[in-house]
């Protein structure tokens, strides 16, 4: 039984995506088997037999404690973002905010990680931990917001200083309204997908993550059939595959591609013309480029699965 369905039976219960930060008096806190949903039910609505039955079906959860967040501001943002509580902070309807999610596989002291993140972002940014090694940076839109390139450089510095592998997802700017948490939930899904399915990269964005995310949900049989000839050409010539993907990721600019691959421009152009002739798809057009780029992404998925 899903906790969301159980909530319908107990209308006074409350569903959480993360456990509440503090124990709620006289409530039974349950977790599903994946610890992705938590339901708090007033014990006054439960008989002794119902409590025993529910504890055989679900695990009893422990409050998160929200102990990593030291300031009142970060605690309030945590309750808003991860527990779905109403905002306890004041914002102007004209202001826009984005959430930059972060996660680190290895263990790092929270104070050291906070100091490292604080050195990257503007002073008014709020650092919110959801666990000792993951959370979000709340950034208000101003004349200066951290560019993706600078965050990528900063991630490399953190990796070098702490011997860890940080990953970030840069969200889009939204107003704090009734839709904000829905957008954040979708961006959390994209970041989770990127961490599991995109092996390369420290910094992800909506544009960089959505194409492989959408492709993931195309039936495997369809992808196998429609990309068969492209995959065949790539299998025969690994260098051609690298050239085409680099070309597409450099805005179909031959000179930039040649620079990235340390090749002569004419050699790059020769490989592009060779590919177009073999496949019959003109990657100099937007539609052709998009189609072949998706094929490149699917080929990478296949290569990663073979490696596993």
TrEMBL record:
Enumerate the spans annotated as PucR C-terminal helix-turn-helix domain: 241-296
The record ties this protein, via InterPro entries, to: CdaR-like_regulators, Homeodomain-like_sf, PucR_C-HTH_dom, PucR_C-HTH_sf
Superkingdom: Bacteria
Regions crossing the membrane: none
Tell me the protein's name.
PucR C-terminal helix-turn-helix domain-containing protein
């Amino acid at each position: 039984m899903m906790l969301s369905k159980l909530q319908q039976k107990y209308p006074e219960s409350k569903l959480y995506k993360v456990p509440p930060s503090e124990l709620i008096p006289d409530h039974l806190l349950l977790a599903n088997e994946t610890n992705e949903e938590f339901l708090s039910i007033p014990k006054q609505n439960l008989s002794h037999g119902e409590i025993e039955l529910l504890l055989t079906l679900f695990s009893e959860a422990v409050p998160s404690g929200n102990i990593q967040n030291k300031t009142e501001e970060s605690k309030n943002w945590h309750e808003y973002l991860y527990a779905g509580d109403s905002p306890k902070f004041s914002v102007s309807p004209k202001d826009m905010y984005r959430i930059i999610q972060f996660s680190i596989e290895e263990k790092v002291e929270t104070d050291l990680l906070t100091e490292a993140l604080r050195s990257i972002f503007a002073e008014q940014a709020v650092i919110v931990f959801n666990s000792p090694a993951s959370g979000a940076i709340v950034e208000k839109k101003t004349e200066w917001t951290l560019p993706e390139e600078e965050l990528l450089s900063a991630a490399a510095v953190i990796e070098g200083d702490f011997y860890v592998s940080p990953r970030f997802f840069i969200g889009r700017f939204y107003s704090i309204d009734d839709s904000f948490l829905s957008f954040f939930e979708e961006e959390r899904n994209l970041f989770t997908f990127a961490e599991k399915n995109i092996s390369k990269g420290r910094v992800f964005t909506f544009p960089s993550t959505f194409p492989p995310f959408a492709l993931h949900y195309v039936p495997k049989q369809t992808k196998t059939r429609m990309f068969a000839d492209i995959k065949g050409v790539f299998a025969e010539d690994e260098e051609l595959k690298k050239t085409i993907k680099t070309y597409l990721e450099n805005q179909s600019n031959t000179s930039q591609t040649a620079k990235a691959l340390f090749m002569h421009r004419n050699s790059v152009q020769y490989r592009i013309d060779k590919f177009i002739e073999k496949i019959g798809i003109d990657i100099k057009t937007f539609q052709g480029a998009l189609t072949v780029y998706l094929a490149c992404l699917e080929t990478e998925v296949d290569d990663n699965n073979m490696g596993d």
